[in-house]
Amino acid sequence: MEVFDNIFAINHRCSSFFLGLLLLLASALSLADAKSHYHDFVIQATPLKRLCKTQNSITVNGMFPGPTLEVNNGDTLVVNVVNKARYNVTIHWHGVRQMRTGWADGPEFVTQCPIRPGGSYTYRFTIQGQEGTLWWHAHSSWLRATVYGALIIHPKEGSSYPFSKQPKRETAILLGEWWNADPIDVVREATRTGGAPNSSDAYTINGQPGDLYNCSSQDTVIVPIDSGETNLLRVVNSALNQPLFFTVANHKLTVVGADASYVKPFTTSVLMLGPGQTTDVLISGDQNPSRYYMAARAYQSAQNAPFDNTTTTAILEYKSSPCAAKNCSSNKPIMPPLPTFNDTATVTAFTSSFKSTGKTFVPTDIDESLFFTVGLGLNPCPPNFNKSSQCQGPNGTRFTASMNNVSFVLPSNFSLLQAHHQRIQGVFTTDFPANPPRKFDYTGNVSRSLFTPVPGTKLYRLKYGSRVQIVLQDTSIVTSENHPIHLHGYDFYIIAQGFGNYNPRTDPSKFNLVDPPLRNTVAVPVNGWAVIRFVADNPGVWLMHCHLDVHITWGLATAFLVENGVGELQSIESPPEDLPLC
Predict the structure, then answer these.
(1) If we measure between CA atoms, which residue out of 453, 497, 547 comes closest to residue 241?
(2) 417, 113 contact by CB (below 8 A)
(3) Are the C-beta atoms of 355 and 263 separated by less than 8 Å?
(4) What pLDDT shows up at residue 553?
(5) d(C-alpha 449, C-alpha 404), whole Å
(6) Please, which pLDDT band fits residue 323 given cuts at 50, 70 and 90?
(7) In angstroms, rounded to a whole number, what is the distance separating the alpha carbons of residues 425 and 568?
(8) N or C, which end of the chain is more exposed by having fewer CB within 10 Å?
(9) Which residues have a Cβ under 8 Å from the Cβ of 184 and sit 6 or more positions away?
(10) Where do runs of H (alpha helix) occur along 219-268?
(11) What is the C-alpha to C-alpha distance for residues 308 and 34, in angstroms, rounded to an integer?
């Protein structure tokens, strides 16, 4: 028996050796196919005319939206950002996993100090195991209102999309918001008054408001299609503060991907995207050759809250249409119906249709079971404030927001990642609560005593490799609302969503552990909850926040400190030499 054991041990060692060799060879071949892409981003003020008015807006390379970056799965991006604007700036690569490269993630005072006017910083990172549509945007104050662009990740060289029909052409559709003012002035005024910021003056598709706004029809975006074609639309909600419906007149949309993950295809007539989310859809040229409006308008779930109730349009134009060869301004495109602004039933039907395709790796045994409330709040007017001018929230208060009753405060002298890496004391604590400090009827009539959160820079510590479940619970404090919650550095599985208060006894029966969608941003339902799971396999400091920028401004955020694991491959890389200083 001992002889057989020895033979088995030798064979096992040989098998392990050859398996390791094969994996090393496969990795080398994969690296041989991968490319590095180099880009220069110049942040600068650029005159832009929209809605009959010209104003200096902050852009990248004078473009609005900014440059579309295209890579293949496995490629490396090297982007040198030079700040020639008058504001501090950082760039976030929204949805990129940033495995061990947290220094390149971009949120101001979280993973880096800002790039000061006149300064520069080079972001370097590799995109691994992701395919589809992501995007990049400024992550400093409200600069992302105009500083954003698409990040398209194609399959590896020699591979094709896992679709039954390969698209003939691809078009990025970036939905945005436009103010007839400097967005920095808008948020600064709201911070001064303590009230809600002014709503946007228009929505945009690829930077243009479209035919339904003044002085805009000449520059309405035209998206070409031809009869018999199947094309891929990569839709991104780049809006600052507004979930949006999107539809195309007379055309069905087949959803095939979201947040750079493939999904089981399903057909719909309307999309809903929260800010930060992306959706890839196939559209077929199966209608009469003509012109059809693409349209987007607000999904507004918060009651009695002001919002921009306008509609942006682009035109889907058949190349064989008589209008394609000449100016057909008199030939009005066909307008699609859009859901009413508060149509939560349509939103629920759409979001519940997402299912992952292929093999999933949903954690089943959970190490960290967390429960985070998300919502607004009100601070009383400080004694030294002018109540009429500085406390313009409800009943002479100031708006705030929180997770688990902690209103997140960014540091100003160090980034959180720098403080963690250099063991600098006094910048943050790791006592963010795993559960709400007080249980209450989250979606019912909430006591006014719970309206005022505690400010703090509190992180939650996770061991490397821990399996995490988070219940994200909306609250009706001030008003309930659909919150797009984004987690930096990770994708996560959305295993369940529902309305009312999450019930830990009965709601786990609704968990989808077979084919839940893999996302980086989850739209927590108004007056409801969502449950997500992920494995903490990426060391660093990772922000989790509401992607309505007005809410992160008020403190609806926290961050995870994920410890290093064992060895170099489970540890964050050293900071780059040109990392900006505070």
Answers:
(1) 547
(2) no
(3) yes
(4) 98
(5) 14
(6) confident
(7) 25
(8) N
(9) 87, 141, 142, 143
(10) none
(11) 44
Q: Which residues contact 174 (CB under 8 A, 6 or more apart)?
A: 65, 135, 148, 149, 150, 204, 205, 206, 207, 236, 238
Q: Are 540 and 459 in contact (CB under 8 A)?
A: no
Annotate 350-381 with b (16+ C-beta within 10 A) or e (fewer).
bbeebebbeeeebbeeeebebbbbbbbbbbeb
At residue 5 the predicted structure's pLDDT band, cuts being 50, 70 and 90, is very low
pLDDT in tens, 229-252: 999 999 999 999 999 999 999 999
Strand partners, 231: 283
Token couple for 197: 């910021």
Kind and range of the H or E run holding 15: helix 2-33
Closest to 506 measured CA to CA, from 485, 535, 531, 486: 531
Q: How far apart are CA 212 and CA 206, in angstroms?
A: 15
Two tokens at 126?
């590799």
For strand 528-535 and strand 518-519, is the pairing parallel, antiparallel, or unpaired? unpaired
**Residue 65 structure tokens:** 């939206």
The C-alpha angle 87, 92, 95, rounded to 5 degrees, equals 160
* 18 vs 425: which has the higher pLDDT: 425
Yes or no: say if 297 and 343 are a contact pair by the CB < 8 Å rule: no
Q: Are 551 and 274 in contact (CB under 8 A)?
A: no
Residues 6+ apart with CB under 8 A from 205: 173, 174, 175, 176, 221, 294, 296, 312, 313, 314
- By three-state DSSP, how is residue 255 classified? strand
> Taking every pair of C-alpha atoms in the chain, what is the biggest distance, in angstroms?
90
As a whole number, mean pLDDT of residues 479-499 equals: 98
Positive or negative: CA dihedral 426, 428, 429, 430: negative
- Counting every residue, how long is the chain? 582
The C-alpha atoms of residue 504 and residue 506 are separated, in whole angstroms, by 6
Backbone angles phi, psi at 365, to 5 degrees: -85, 125
| Cα separation, 548 vs 241, whole angstroms | 4
On the question of a cis peptide bond just before residue 65, with omega within 30 degrees of 0, the verdict is yes
Which residues are within 8 A (CB) of 392 and not within 5 positions of it... i.e. 6 or more apart? 193, 194, 195, 398
Q: How many H helices and E strands in the chain?
A: 6, 32
Nearest 10 degrees: Cα torsion 10, 11, 13, 17: 140
